[in-house]
Amino acid sequence: MTAAKDRLEASVRDCYATWSESYYRDYYGEGAAYPPVHRDIFKNLLAKAGAGNILDAGCGPASLLRELLGTGLDLYGFDLTPQMVVEGRKVLAEAGLPSGRLWEGSVRDPDAYRDPEGRLTGRFDAAICSGVFPHLPEEADAEVAACLREAVRPGGLVAVEARNALFSLFTLNRYSHAFFLHELIRADELQAGLDAEQRETLQKALAGLEDRFRMDLPPVRRGGEGSPGYDEILSRTHNPFILRAVFEDLGLVNVRLLFYHFHCLPPMLETGLGELFRHQSLAMEQPTDWRGHFMASAFIIVGEKP
Ligand SMILES: C[S@@+](CC[C@H](N)C(=O)[O-])C[C@H]1O[C@@H](n2cnc3c(N)ncnc32)[C@H](O)[C@@H]1O
Which runs of consecutive H residues, i.e. helices, occur in 100-218? Predict the structure, then answer.
């Protein structure tokens, strides 16, 4: 278990080590493939909650934190990848914040949630975690959500961003096939108790399923400079129904889902539409629209500690 955790965390560090300086530009800059719409969702959440301070678990190069400079919030964060912490400190230092506001740590380590002075440990107004859950094994979801809950005061806000597994029902590609086979049909369960002939018939039907999807899409995102790419390390999606149950089982209240990065059509149809695809998709951005369950590739799940 520990060896597996160490191996996984080493692969995540390898993936992100060479990304620290360009990450913000790639995902939040002018040239980003899609505007960082989650930024305003987080900002609104924090403003509505009246938060005075925030802990960003897995903060990367302070990508979200730097967007919160000037809001009056006291900013704190930690990340697994040392190069990300170095870059984040550089950015926050330019705004006059001390380097101690960011530190190295894993979201799977309860001690990582302690601020260096201990002033806010267990008493943060809000704990957020964005872009990190894809890199956690399934068994760590509840463990990390519990750490986030422990990091905040009663009434404090917990917000986790994740990739939406249900979006695969809209993409019609290899992700859809995997979701049909493993999550909906559950082929292994379906085959249990069948005789040889029935199994063969079922196998033939299941083989036909592949023909319904573009199994060559999307292309695998590979790394550079000897680092593994995003799709070459563990990069899970999450089922919002299941993550909601995780939050509720932990006793978080007022649990809600906010969807973002809508797609007006399945992504494989983007070619040819160019800017129109982006324009129409952006027009759909409404975090509480039920269509987000299927047409948005990401969501933020929010809850409060009672
Ligand atoms: C996609 S980036 C997101 C950065 C930032 N939170 C944002 O939303 O812009 C993922 C970050 O999560 C960090 N990360 C992955 N697994 C982690 C873990 N177990 N503990 C802490 N950070 C982790 C990576 O080092 C990387 O900086």
Answer: 140-151, 168-171, 174-178, 187-191, 196-210
- Longest distance between any two alpha carbons in the chain, whole Å: 72
The strand order across the sheet containing 53-57 reads 102-104, 74-79, 53-57, 124-129, 152-163, 296-304, 253-262
- What are 3-25's pLDDT values in tens digits? 999 999 999 998 899 989 999 99
**Cα 79 to ligand 1 centre (Å):** 6
Ligand 1: list residues with CB < 6 Å: 9, 12, 16, 58-60, 63-64, 79-81, 84, 106-108, 130-132, 135
Kindly give the distance from the C-alpha atom of residue 233 to the centroid of ligand 1, in angstroms, as a whole number: 13
Q: Which residues contact 279 (CB under 8 A, 6 or more apart)?
A: none
Q: Give the architecture (CATH level 2) of 2-167+220-304.
A: 3-Layer(aba) Sandwich (3.40)
Q: Compute the CA torsion angle 236, 242, 243, 247 (nearest 10 deg).
A: -150
Q: What is the average pLDDT across 217-230?
A: 76
Domain ranges of the chain: 2-167+220-304, 174-210
Q: Phi and psi at residue 20, in whole multiples of 5°?
A: -60, -40
Note if the pTM is more than 0.70: yes
